[in-house]
Amino acid sequence: MEVSVLDIKGQETGRKVALNDAIFGIEPNDHVLYLDVKQYLANQRQGTAKSKERSEMSGSTRKLGRQKGGGGARRGDINSPVLVGGARVFGPKPRDYRFKLNKKVKILARKSALSYKAQENSIVMLEDFTFEAPKTKEFLSVLKNLKIEGKKVLFVLPESNKNVYLSARNLQRSEVILASNVNSYKILNADVVVITEKSLETIDQILTK
């Protein structure tokens, strides 16, 4: 599959690049996509939710009423979960939500995500570019020239570029990431994936090694 390379003015450069069928042309595997996205979202969780159990509450330990004969549920001290303001039973505790995925599963998931975007014609190849200074106005003009303004856009760069990153930072529907950090969630969450020429080489190296 060949794709024309555009410049930041949205015009064709006359060059074409071939998208590797081993990455962009496979039959997508939905289950590994689910696992990879699930892992990414789980890794974002802080896991700091905490509620007090009975032994952690402050309050008198005096038994408030008789064990039997009161006509209601049995209850002990004022920290009983039965009472309003009492402790919580089996409440959340700080925990780590991360889990392990094999490298081959992650690689297959990212290939599947890119294959879906290729099938949808949602991949734009862009020649390598930079800005002289961080300017959101310039980044917006690039989006307009590429006819993707108003869409969720993921820009994939080969290496860290502070000016491009700062230019896109204030735009809610645009995101800039490095080719080495590409993941299934970011790809699937975007309407359009803009890949620069050098980024494509990096993606090929990572996903075909």
TrEMBL record:
Annotated organism of origin: Segatella hominis
Keyword Magnesium: no
Signal peptide as annotated in the record: none
Family according to the record: Belongs to the universal ribosomal protein uL4 family.
Gene: rplD
Keyword hit for Ribonucleoprotein: yes
Pfam families: Ribosomal_L4 (PF00573)
Function: Forms part of the polypeptide exit tunnel.
One of the record's GO molecular function terms: structural constituent of ribosome
GO cellular-component term (any): ribosome
Region (Disordered): 45-77
Coiled coil: none
Source organism superkingdom: Bacteria
Oligomer and partners: Part of the 50S ribosomal subunit.
GO biological processes: translation
Protein name: Large ribosomal subunit protein uL4
InterPro entries documented for this protein: Ribosomal_uL4, Ribosomal_uL4-like, Ribosomal_uL4_dom_sf
Key words of the record: Ribonucleoprotein, Ribosomal protein, RNA-binding, rRNA-binding
